[in-house]
Write a structure and sequence with these properties.
Layout (H helix, E strand, L loop, with lengths): L2 H30 L6 H17 L12 H20 L11
Helix pairs in contact: 1-2, 1-3, 2-3
Length: 98
């Protein structure tokens, strides 16, 4: 499998866990900070799940990480993008993207 195929496999795994990660982040935010703005707490939770999925993949396994800050920036963009996508759809509406 080439680099593109491996990358797409990783993205598939991340997309599969994102709805659960976002719901988990919501719960964490409500439990840890009821009644307060929990955006940073939720973002941190979603980012950690994405980071775990990436690090467990063959895309990174056994390779040297050259720039931790760049990796974190990419993970932050993925997390924010996922939240944007989830917020664009009414929960439980069964709407399909496409």
């Amino acid at each position: 499998m080439g680099v593109l195929g491996t990358f797409l496999k990783v993205i598939g795994k991340i997309v599969g866990v994102l709805p659960i990660a976002i719901q988990l982040a919501e719960v964490i935010g409500k439990l840890l900070s009821p009644g307060t703005k929990t955006g940073p707490t939720k973002l941190a939770a979603v980012k950690e799940i994405i980071r775990d999925a990436i690090q467990a993949s063959e895309f990174i396994t056994g390779k040297e990480l050259l720039d931790e800050q760049l990796l974190d920036q990419g993970i932050t963009k993925m997390a924010n993008g996922a939240v944007d996508v989830m917020n664009a759809v009414k929960p439980g509406a069964g709407a399909a993207i496409g």
